[in-house]
What does this fold into?
Amino acid sequence: MIKVTVVSDASSDSASVHSAVSVTDVTRSYVRRALFFLAVLSGYSYVLLWPWHPYPLSYALKATPLVLIALAWWCGPRQTDMRRRDGVFLIVALMFSAAGDVFLDLDRTGYLREALMAFLVAQVAYICLFWPRRHITTLNRWFPLLLFAACGLLLRQFYANAGVLWWPLVVYVLCLAWMALAAFWSRRWPLMAGGLLFLCADALIGINRFWLPFEHSTPVIVSLYISAQLLLAYGVLFGYLPDRRRR
It folds into this structure.
């Protein structure tokens, strides 16, 4: 009888602990969704306020969505060791992207080199996150040919006006294309769309800066860029990140 009582008590304690953990994870899940919603609001608020730019702390508003997404990951449900490592790559990508955003908001021309370096680190972090999860099929294996051919054509057009930024630009474009390819090969729609929108946004930055300037370039580019970051974050935060490939 004593043994039965002990087992029963142990089972009851285990159930209580499991119930407490479940409640905590549900709460964390709601916190994550709330922070992501705030990231969406702050991101598109920056776009809507562009006609009044520059205004006090505009650089802080531009970086706010990415900081909120990093907090959403940190405050979300408990993760396995593998997911924690993924979180490190995500947070590095977000924080260096936020730094690049601040540089571009302060002076889009004067701090272009610094912004380029910050976004380069962000692209490498995204590559580390997505590349191990690629799924290559007969239908999507052609995509790199189109992608790198388009990047090569753009770089050819940028060469005349790139000056000392030419080689940093080449390195960045190759990493950007690699990130977009890794996201596309994930075969998850938020990641695929986010990677392609990121590629389009940065391609338009290059076109506007080094080739064919066009009106209203900044709100168009920023809209695409914020949408890209939100889609990538949505895919990672809410279960669209595929498992790593087995070696």
